[in-house]
Amino acid sequence: MAIAxxxxxxxxxxxxxxxxxGRYEKRLADLDxxxxxxxxxxxxxxxxxxxxxxxxxxxxxxAARGDLIFGTTFMEPGRIGDEFFVTRxxxxxxxxxxxxxxxxxxxxxxxxxxxxxxxxxxxIAPRVMVYVPPLWIHRSVNTGAAPLVMxxxxxxxxxxxxxxxxxxxxxxxxxxxxxxGWKAVPNAAYRPRSKAEIDAILATQD
Length: 206
Ligand SMILES: O=P(O)(O)OC[C@H]1O[C@](O)(CO)[C@@H](O)[C@@H]1O
Ligand SMILES: [Fe+2]
Prior knowledge:
This protein is mostly beta strands. 12% of the residues lie in helices and 38% in strands. The protein has a single domain (22-202), classed as Jelly Rolls.
């Protein structure tokens, strides 16, 4: 039986996606261990731990290999200390699954890192399409003063692996405020991956 075609409307300001099959949100208190400034994070959680940092609307038609998952990410503007709000970030559990992101509103960055530890930073803004190639860890950063809204699409069997970043002490690069703009700085807690761990990531391809 064929799957019925569907059409969905995106509100670029709120990221609300009509006829989404799922929605989730991440609040400040859910994001422990992501930011460098532990004291600033603890203070923010004590003051407003319930505050939503980002939310996702998505459509998952079926879980079958070869299908797509698509949706929107809405990110509030803000910082922990001098570090801009970010998504948790992940590599796909099947590492060679790619993804696209398209800017709907606001301005920010796609922070990318290869298994070997190379950093790439791509700016995202309305009408900009970003391609996340297979095997790149990816995290969105809202560097603006307004919400950052993006739409995304990736293969339905990709999965998300959040442990890889955690085991390395975070991503190699952090994005911090620099006057009215941003700059990339090294993450002092970063531990480069061993050859064995890089090989394990490469082995998740099919
Ligand atoms: O899954 P994370 O790293 O919290 O980030 C959320 C974003 O990534 C996605 O998992 C898509 O890869 C979406 O849910 C959203 O674009
Ligand atoms: Fe992804």
